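Q: Predict the bound structure with iron/sulfur cluster.
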Amino acid sequence: MNASKQEQRTYLGIPVPRPKVAFFELSSCEGCQLQIVNNEATLLDFLSLVDVRAFREAMTEKFSDYQIAFIEGSVTRADEIERLRKVREQAAVIVAFGSCACFGGVNQLKNRFSDPAWVKQEVYRGHPVETADTARPIEDFVKVDLKIFGCPVKKEEVEKIVTSLVLGKTVVHPKYPVCLECKANNNLCLFDLGEPCLGPITRGGCNAWCPNNRFGCWGCRGPAVDANVAQLQKIMRQHGFSEETILDRLECFGGFAEQAKELRSKIGGKG
Ligand code: SF4
Ligand code: SF4
Ligand code: SF4
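A: Predicted complex:
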């Protein structure tokens, strides 16, 4: 990637600014950043919209004069808090990029264990690794201006959101659940095939990525507006799935933390 070439972009003949953007990762698998780099069909168009100032996965040059920072990953080490605060000082807009950054993501599964020392020993086997006892979303430490959901983020959605940012349009996330997209795609409902699914309560926008491929939704994008967990419980029960099956999924990415806590307290289970 070459960050030095600048061209004036126009939209309907009107010059539009090319914001300086940077991508950063905290504790993560870097899969969300990879989505951008992998998007070969539209990568050049996407890059022409923005001036990339830092993106470790894609370029060696690095500049610190960015305006929009995309931050992937959750906070699991003390030094990440410091890095995050520095980025906040520089960036006009901070985007929590992917479920780890938005909710803690799969990393927050470790928060369920009551003995962090045991978890550390099981995972790192004595390697000298500095980790905090919990994995937390970035908004626990800095103000977040925008969230892009998903594990990983959906590249088409990222492009749409970045185009909106560039054109100064308001970014609106879908309020409807994954189910709506799934039905629009004429999929067979996975419940009828014996598979649990969080599609009825999970925020849409991924175009029912998992159900399209015959996998039940695990809720990586967090709750849809007015998500009705009680109704999902009913559906799950009708299809023979226990509360623990629902909880496994609700607790997987951290987006349903409140709903999972409430359900656990109702059924008297322990996280
Ligand atoms: S949200 Fe998923 S894909 Fe993205 S960094 Fe976290 S674990 Fe990886
Ligand atoms: S498979 Fe899942 S998302 Fe699709 S209709 Fe059934 S419950 Fe909804
Ligand atoms: S179907 Fe569910 S788990 Fe799969 S990408 Fe969409 S929101 Fe995430």
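A: The pocket of iron/sulfur cluster (ligand 3) is lined by residues 150, 178, 202, 206, 208-211, 217-221 (CB under 6 Å).
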